Amino acid sequence: MSGKRASRSVRRSEKRRRVQPPLRQGINAAPLRLPEGPWATLGEWFEHRFGSEGLELLNRGDVLAGHNVVASARDVYRAGERVWVFRPVLDEPVHPLELPVIAENERFVVVDKPHGMASVPKGSHVAQSALVTARRQFHNDLLTPAHRLDLETAGLLLFVKSPQWRGAYQLLFERRRIRKVYRAVAPLVPPSQGEICYAGSTWHSELTLHKVEGHLRVQVITPDSQDFPSFSGDLPRSEGAAVEPDCTHGAVLGVSHNGGHNGGYNDGHNGSYNGEHNDGAHSSEHDDSSHSGERNVEHCDGSHSGEYDSGSYYGEHRRPLSRTQANAVTDIELTRELGGGLGLYTLYPHTGFTHQLRVAMNELGAPICGDPVYPQLLTLEQVAARQYPLQLLAAQLAFDDPVTGEHVRCESARRLALEG
With a threshold of 0.85, does the pTM exceed it? Predict the structure, then answer.
């Protein structure tokens, strides 16, 4: 009698592993489809497309054709065929990197990512990304992220060890069955209508945000904006596996202040969820999501749907201003004053959108310290000259294990530079 059939995601992942070349040192090859053209040999096209570097790739054996056969510059050019390319890795570390382990079992591992490390290979961040570092550290090329953190954000990152368990843990994020709590250092929120913030003050932020592909900053849309997007049906999903959302919208529907602590915050499993977005859109060159065949991955800035039920989390005393079009919902608490006009905040995001937490704080008039994007986009020189990175930390992660039912709670061992 045959056993239970593997899930679709597992079957898809196995199929991709049969087609794609094995990873090299935790790094996957990039697929290229050969276009129509006049080239007689593979070498002619690679030189046309990549210059002398293309010929070097072929000479080093870094280009593979079907069935993982090493391609040659003399091979006949066949338009429409797919080849796989291992591109040069420019950020190979001098010494092996190692990520602190916060929790681990046979199905997943939670690590404590530092500031400045990309979650997955992207652009110039390849060998020193968290994914490649973890694959090398744990000697497991099947390792994939269940979610992501922005390059600038430090803190907890969960990797799944096998395709067998990938769907179960990614569904925790997709269905809001995981709770993420962030800490941030920012200026004290300016007084509003005579109200002065103090330790224990809380704010409820509902924004409508719009991300234009290729643009770094997220746009805040107000109801009276001329370019206010039209909505039809449910809000579009605000995140996907490694892909920038096709159509995501967003508007400042309001930021409400509640002077005092909201007793609703706890370590339970009430659907409080998510965190900050990863650092950009999908890159087929070095993004290992193309290798893994995983489900849509939460981008660490919220849920997949952009919807939320205020009644299930907030009490009647904290009704939101509006929820008709908000796709970025965050609760913010001033945990304590740090002196020098700064405060330590605890952030509880309930939805997911690119840079949601950073935009929410900026809209309060308290942009997170060290932010290179909000309120002002810094030059590369200014970013390099910063005294400290973005003061945002994915501090806590809690969920019921989908396999065993055991409650898992993890806490980052890192502290923000300005936290005191």
Answer: no
